[in-house]
Automatic annotation (TrEMBL):
Residues 53-101 form the HNH domain. One of its GO terms (molecular function) is nucleic acid binding. This is HNH domain-containing protein. InterPro entries: HNH. It comes from the Bacteria. It holds the Pfam family HNH. It comes from Endozoicomonas elysicola.
Length: 209
């Protein structure tokens, strides 16, 4: 699986028509007439992004407001690219809110960029995430180059260490069974096998000889 989006969403002719008719400023993004297009975008990008946030790489949720369509070049500053599909990627609401409308370009543009050269953060369509950011222990983000450092800063990825710590603390207060289930997620194959063997033994005891 590539670490960047290889092909942007392809708008259909009828979707293009809806955009032509109803879009004039970035505020129109919220219009209900675009809901169908957004749904198609999300479904398409979930697959292309392996259902991961383009900035923190955490799993994207399925509930209301659990996933955002992120405008890589902020739509309030670069209005004409609001529906430019290369400018769109899925992010978690935490990263989207943290990034806000911060500047992401080195120098002004007229046309949408074709490479990541003029962009100071990791661009989901142009840049390979792993070349710029390494994630340690699931929540510690290391910038490997300037783009990586700037992405961590703009999206406040350092916040996730605290988020994971809270989650772990909450887990340690929960039932032993829940803790066991959680431990199994990250257990080694040997430990998983050990668990299966012990469960078999226990099941046999329940069932009797
Ligand atoms: Zn995120």
């Amino acid at each position: 699986m590539s670490s960047r989006i290889l092909e942007a969403y392809q708008l259909t002719a009828s979707e293009k028509k809806i955009i032509d008719t109803h879009f004039s400023t970035h505020k129109d993004w919220e219009k209900s007439v675009f809901e169908g297009i957004k749904e198609n975008l999300v479904n398409d990008l979930r697959i292309k992004q392996n259902n991961k946030c383009c900035y923190c790489r955490n799993e994207l949720g399925y509930d209301i407001k659990a996933v955002d369509i992120e405008h890589i070049l902020p739509k309030s500053k670069y209005e004409k690219f609001t529906f430019h599909t290369k400018n769109l990627a899925l992010s978690c609401p935490g990263c989207n809110t943290s990034k806000g409308s911060k500047e992401v370009l080195k120098s002004p543009i007229k046309k949408y960029p074709r490479t990541g050269t003029n962009i100071i953060i990791v661009h989901a369509h142009f840049d390979n995430y792993e070349s710029s950011i390494e994630i340690h222990s699931g929540s510690i983000y290391e910038g490997l180059d300037e783009k990586g450092c700037e992405t961590i800063k703009q999206c406040k990825l350092y916040r996730l260490k605290r988020v994971h710590k809270k989650a772990r603390k909450n887990l340690s207060n929960s039932s032993p069974i829940q803790q066991l289930v959680e431990s199994l997620r990250t257990a080694s194959d040997a430990d998983k096998q050990l668990f299966i063997n012990q469960m078999r033994e226990m099941t046999n005891q329940f069932q009797g000889p």
